[in-house]
Amino acid sequence: MGDLGVLPDHLAPHTAAVDALGELIIGGMRVSELVRQYGSPLFIYDENHLRTRMREATEGFGGGRVIYASKAFPSVAMARLISEEGLWWDAASQGELEAGLRGGVQPKRVILHGNNKSFDELRMAIDAKVGRIVVDSFDEIDRLDYLGGSASVWLRITPGIEAHTHAYVRTGQQDSKFGFNLANGDAHRAIARVKASSHLMLSGLHCHIGSQVFALGSFRDAIDVMVTLAKDEGVEELCIGGGFGVGYLRDERVPTIGEWTSWLREAFVAHGMRDQQTFIEPGRAIVAAAAVTVYTVGVIKEIPGVRTYVAVDGGMSDNPRPVLYGSGYEAFTSSRLFDPHDMTVALVGKHCESGDVLVREARLPTDLQVGELVMTPVTGAYGYAMGSNYNKLPRPAVVLVGHGQARLIARRETIDDLFRLEVDG
């Protein structure tokens, strides 16, 4: 990767480089040229990074099946890459299911998730002949019985594992809106009911203990519980979900996706599970570090003795994670990466909210100027996907870069786009 100046290697996309003047290059394209062509704010994804992470996941997991958790970034272009690299597609809504199918993912490689699937979503999945439907509740079994038609299903189990992560992204504990509780017997009752169905085939069990999990022991505990249940019930397939933590900050060093998947495979093998029986669902670990978001500085406001605020042309509408979870990010000037970043500022957005803070203590050059480009790395997951039009801001454009070329995969919204659903005026 070479010398990236103040940008740590582990936060940079795979093809990141810095030219002699200190400007960031991704996929052979200068960031400033991409902004000139596509505007600001701008999401820039490194295609080589995405493909490399997919291959590391599949190689690490051996013959097991790797399912991309599309909620991290559910674009049609991403589905096309997933299809080309031979991964499966995890959809949690009709829209994510449609994105996968439009991107060319074979229906048999699609998994439908969701804790409150509508009749329309279930009917679409059955008609499309998706590979698996992950059943989340007794009400959903009722809906599938009503619709008829054959379907291969997994049952989502809450195994009672308390993952050490933010409460909002913790999903495997007993008190959860997801899945069938193991401790109170619901899981066993659901298994018996699906086994008795004339048109549902119980192919496997599924669990997901949370997102941004760093403790390998949490996954080991989940595997221990789920393998025991699967063997007791004579169920063949087992998916342990995803949620592998990634590093967002300078001092966060975490296992690579290849290390994660190799470790999980070994844990399954130790329990006598064959590769073809096992599934995992990485999302963030594939896409997070593949992208940076580039903003333009609009205001620099110094309050002596208090704080300096640097306001950019985006904010919580393109990255709500800091507001939702208190998530940490770093910031850098994309054209001066060899310059010292020794001024501490609050990097904020342009929304009418005091909480619209992207990086609470960002380090940027002391002579930062209005009009300069500032980027936040590791924004490929849950940025664009969770974005909004708050304050009627148009969504940014998204480009995919590689081999010295850029491809627009989501155009920037226009003012007219903001009103396309309104029926008065």
TrEMBL record:
<dbReference type="GO" id="GO:0008836">
    <property type="term" value="F:diaminopimelate decarboxylase activity"/>
</dbReference>
<dbReference type="InterPro" id="IPR022653">
    <property type="entry name" value="De-COase2_pyr-phos_BS"/>
</dbReference>
<feature type="binding site">
    <location>
        <begin position="281"/>
        <end position="284"/>
    </location>
    <ligand>
        <name>pyridoxal 5'-phosphate</name>
    </ligand>
</feature>
<keyword id="KW-0663">Pyridoxal phosphate</keyword>
<protein>
    <recommendedName>
        <fullName>Diaminopimelate decarboxylase</fullName>
        <ecNumber>4.1.1.20</ecNumber>
    </recommendedName>
</protein>
<feature type="active site" description="Proton donor">
    <location>
        <position position="352"/>
    </location>
</feature>
<feature type="binding site">
    <location>
        <position position="284"/>
    </location>
    <ligand>
        <name>substrate</name>
    </ligand>
</feature>
<keyword id="KW-0210">Decarboxylase</keyword>
<keyword id="KW-0028">Amino-acid biosynthesis</keyword>
<comment type="function">
    <text>Specifically catalyzes the decarboxylation of meso-diaminopimelate (meso-DAP) to L-lysine.</text>
</comment>
<feature type="binding site">
    <location>
        <position position="321"/>
    </location>
    <ligand>
        <name>substrate</name>
    </ligand>
</feature>
<feature type="binding site">
    <location>
        <position position="382"/>
    </location>
    <ligand>
        <name>pyridoxal 5'-phosphate</name>
    </ligand>
</feature>
<dbReference type="GO" id="GO:0009089">
    <property type="term" value="P:lysine biosynthetic process via diaminopimelate"/>
</dbReference>
<feature type="binding site">
    <location>
        <position position="325"/>
    </location>
    <ligand>
        <name>substrate</name>
    </ligand>
</feature>
<dbReference type="InterPro" id="IPR009006">
    <property type="entry name" value="Ala_racemase/Decarboxylase_C"/>
</dbReference>
<feature type="domain" description="Orn/DAP/Arg decarboxylase 2 N-terminal">
    <location>
        <begin position="49"/>
        <end position="288"/>
    </location>
</feature>
<dbReference type="InterPro" id="IPR029066">
    <property type="entry name" value="PLP-binding_barrel"/>
</dbReference>
<dbReference type="InterPro" id="IPR002986">
    <property type="entry name" value="DAP_deCOOHase_LysA"/>
</dbReference>
<feature type="modified residue" description="N6-(pyridoxal phosphate)lysine">
    <location>
        <position position="71"/>
    </location>
</feature>
<comment type="subunit">
    <text>Homodimer.</text>
</comment>
<feature type="binding site">
    <location>
        <position position="382"/>
    </location>
    <ligand>
        <name>substrate</name>
    </ligand>
</feature>
<dbReference type="InterPro" id="IPR022644">
    <property type="entry name" value="De-COase2_N"/>
</dbReference>
<comment type="pathway">
    <text>Amino-acid biosynthesis; L-lysine biosynthesis via DAP pathway; L-lysine from DL-2,6-diaminopimelate: step 1/1.</text>
</comment>
<dbReference type="Pfam" id="PF02784">
    <property type="entry name" value="Orn_Arg_deC_N"/>
</dbReference>
<keyword id="KW-0456">Lyase</keyword>
<keyword id="KW-0457">Lysine biosynthesis</keyword>
<feature type="binding site">
    <location>
        <position position="243"/>
    </location>
    <ligand>
        <name>pyridoxal 5'-phosphate</name>
    </ligand>
</feature>
<dbReference type="InterPro" id="IPR000183">
    <property type="entry name" value="Orn/DAP/Arg_de-COase"/>
</dbReference>
<dbReference type="GO" id="GO:0030170">
    <property type="term" value="F:pyridoxal phosphate binding"/>
</dbReference>
<comment type="similarity">
    <text>Belongs to the Orn/Lys/Arg decarboxylase class-II family. LysA subfamily.</text>
</comment>
<feature type="binding site">
    <location>
        <position position="353"/>
    </location>
    <ligand>
        <name>substrate</name>
    </ligand>
</feature>
